[in-house]
Structures are given as C-alpha cells and as structure tokens.
Amino acid sequence: MKHLKTLLATVVLAALPLSAQQLIVYMADGREIPVEKILARPNGDLVATANGQQVPLKREQYVRALGARPGELAQATQLIAAGDVDKAKAMLNSAIRKSAFQTWDAVAAIQLADLYAKEGNGASANRTLNTIKERYGDNAESLFPGLQLVEWKTMVAQGKGAELEPELTKLVVEAPDRATQANAQMIRGDIKAARADFKGALLDYLRTVYFYEQQPAEHEQALFKTGETFQKLGETAHAKKYFDQLKAKYPQSEFIAKIPN
Fold first, then answer.
1. Contact present, 215 and 239 (Cβ < 8 Å)
2. What is the C-alpha separation between 94 and 183, in angstroms, rounded?
3. Global confidence as pTM
4. What is the side-by-side strand order in the sheet with 23-27?
5. Which structural domain range is residue 250 located in?
6. Which among 125, 131, 135, 210 is placed 20 to 30 Å from 200, CA to CA?
7. Mean pLDDT in consecutive groups of 10 residues from the start of the chain, 261 residues
8. Cα-flanking dihedrals φ and ψ of residue 41, to 5°?
9. Are residues 102 and 40 in the same domain?
C-alpha cells in the first residue's frame, strides 16, 4: 500500500506545472517530507533544504526523493517525436545524471533503455537499467512499475528470450494485473517472432487483441503486431483488417506511421 501511495503521488505531481511541483523526500519510516531543494551526492546521501534549513540524509534513511523534473525529459520527448533519437538519448543520459536518486533518473532510464532495446542494443539497455537498480536496490521494481517491461525487452534484445519465456508463460496466467498479463503475452510473441515462429507469435498477439481490449496501451500495440505478423506471413487481407482496426480505434497511435505501405 505504501508503494502504491508513493506511485500515485508521483503521477499526480508529474502532471503539475513545474512551478507547482512539490519536492518530496519519502522516508524509510513512511514519512513524506516536503522540501524546497534536494542535492544528491554520488553515494546517494542527500542534503535536503526544508523550511530554509539544510537537512543531511543518509541513503538508508529514505526510499526515494522526488526532485525537480529536468527539462531534458520534455526535450527528449520532442526529439523522439521528430525522429532524432540520437539527440534524445543524449538528453535522457543528461537527465539520468542530473536527477540521480530523485525519481526522474528512473523515468529517463526506462525511456532510454526502451530506445536501446528497440534498436537491438541489449548491452546498452542493460547497462542503463543497472544504473537504476544500483541506485534504488530491491525497491526499484516496486517503485517504478515500468521497469519490468523494459527489462523483458532488454533480455529479448540480448538474445535471452529462451531464458525468459517460461517466466512469461507463467505470468500470462498468474500475474495479478491484466496489463502485466497482456505485456507478458506480447513479449512472448516477440520471442517467437525473433526465432521466425511467426504463427506462434501471431497466436500470442491475437490473444492479446481479443482478451485485453480493456488495456488500451497493450491492445493498441497488439493490433499493430498482429497486422505486422500477418503481413510477414503474406496474408495481406488479414493484415489490412487489423491495421484498419488500429487506425479506427486509436487514430493518434504512434504505430500508424509504422504500417507498411
């Protein structure tokens, strides 16, 4: 429950204008301390300014801090939308450095690792994620739920799909939330596609389309992957059917631009 409360606080604060965003240190004893400024040392110790007074904090005294959102995150989003991925990576790396131990480093690292994984650069993706795991330790996955999905993508990019597949198969059935089930199923499909088992991959994507329509982010991606896989199998009429569904249901989808001509 405490981790859920922490996550919700991050979502709410992230939606606020930068001028309104409250900086907070989440203490190991459950307290949430509003502060005016946070300075992080390389070892994770903080110097937080609260009510005008500097308060030194050892790494073991707090779970995480929510610092000022770095401008590089917004710049990276704009650069990715413009197709300038290399400059976006530089912005995200800068955000990881500037926001160490202050939440936004993890947000930037997850986005950067995802970019690397999409390029098939599993080594760089893994190195990026390890930075966050070292900073946040055993709390990393519970504090940053998006981390798990990018870890899976990273393993696939590293050629470790066979090692991951049994875990995904178990999660498709046993994961406590439907988004995790859907993502596990799609990543399992990606693993099959990577070994040219397109029919097996198609079954996973189709199951996601038909059983997880209430998970928009996953459903949108599954529609694209289904159409893409039908295309690879030479079944263009079926591919068009799912691409058309994607366009109709998610007209703002980033995947529309990736539909083959």
1. no
2. 29
3. 0.83
4. 32-35, 23-27, 62-66
5. 160-258
6. 125
7. 37 40 93 95 96 95 95 94 93 97 96 95 97 93 92 95 96 94 96 95 97 95 97 96 97 91 78
8. -90, 160
9. yes
